[in-house]
Design a protein that fits this description.
Blueprint: H1 11-14, H2 19-26, E1 27-28, E2 37-41, E3 48-52, E4 59-60, E5 76-82, E6 87-90, E7 95-98, E8 103-106, E9 114-117, E10 126-132, E11 140-142, E12 148-152, E13 161-167, E14 178-184, E15 190-191, E16 195-197, E17 201-208, E18 216-222, E19 225-231, E20 235-239, E21 246-249, E22 254-261, E23 270-272
Length: about 280
């Protein structure tokens, strides 16, 4: 189920948007739909966001008209995270066990990708972040306990969190996709403080483990003209390179962060202190 192309939006446009305008342009509310394949093509570094929730039958990673390819990964790569029950991803030559929070990289040229759930009553929920690729890197998976682990933040500032880098320049190699998972500790609600921009990269946030009666207020926009987007469980925020990205929840939650653009240096960011934001 392909969706309409998202973007581009200039920074100066955001200040005039209504809340519904913001949601229409930067929030994907229905990415993970039971039994369906969803693709969100964007003009942000040509990234395509993918959602697949297979039930009894597998779901194929299908090419969409916007990428003009015979198969989805003909000219692309993709990072995939499972935020649901146990699953399996098959390709033309390989099969990958996908536990909850496992991260899989599939490189350019990979064919016949099928998403499966082990138990349709507790389906796997696959989120994919795909960008153009100029060459092929080996397919690889990071189990839920693998990757580069960084303990960040402090309980006194309510932002203690565990950040796991999986696809990055010192981990699973890719052309431009960088991907990982951050889990906030109980009692912490702030993510990514201080806020920052990536002038050289687009970043998408998939929020999950957000309880039904909880929400995350995602901060966006230019530092001197910030806006907020109220986000529920398993919803995706698109963050252009000119926008800050940070947020606070009503209780602890987790999120998948993924980037693509000019470089893969995780720490290449322009920090904005909260005292400088408006």
């Amino acid at each position: 189920m392909p969706s309409a192309m998202r973007g581009p939006v200039a920074a100066e446009q955001m200040s005039g948007f209504t809340q519904q305008d913001l949601r229409d342009r930067f929030l994907v509310e229905d990415l993970l739909v039971a039994g369906e394949f969803v693709a969100i093509p964007t003009h942000y570094d040509r990234v395509v966001a993918v959602g697949a929730v297979p039930l009894a039958e597998p779901i194929a990673l299908a090419a969409i008209p916007e990428i003009r390819s015979e198969f989805f990964l003909e000219h692309r790569e993709i990072g995939i995270v499972n935020v649901g029950g146990p699953g399996v991803i098959d390709t033309q030559d390989e099969s990958w066990t996908m536990e909850r929070e496992a991260v899989l990289y599939l490189g350019r040229g990979t064919k016949d990708v099928l998403f499966r759930s082990v138990d349709p009553a507790n389906p796997a929920k696959y989120y994919g972040f795909s960008a153009p690729a100029h060459t092929a890197f080996p397919n690889a998976v990071a189990a839920p306990d693998q990757g580069t682990i960084r303990e960040l933040g402090d309980q006194s500032t309510a932002n203690r969190r565990t950040l796991r880098q999986c696809i990055h320049e010192n981990g699973i190699r890719s052309c431009q996709v960088v991907m990982g998972v951050t889990r906030l500790h109980e009692g912490s609600m702030w993510n990514t403080m201080p806020a920052h921009t990536h002038e050289r990269r687009t970043e998408f946030y998939l929020y999950f483990d957000v309880q039904e009666d909880a929400r995350v207020l995602h901060l966006a926009g230019e530092p001197e003209e910030t806006r907020h987007i109220v986000v529920a469980d398993e919803q995706l925020v698109l963050s252009p390179s000119w926008s800050i990205h940070s947020g606070v929840g009503t209780r602890a939650y987790s999120f998948v962060w993924a980037m693509a653009g000019e470089n893969q240096s995780f720490d290449d960011m322009d920090h904005v202190q909260i005292t400088e934001m408006m």
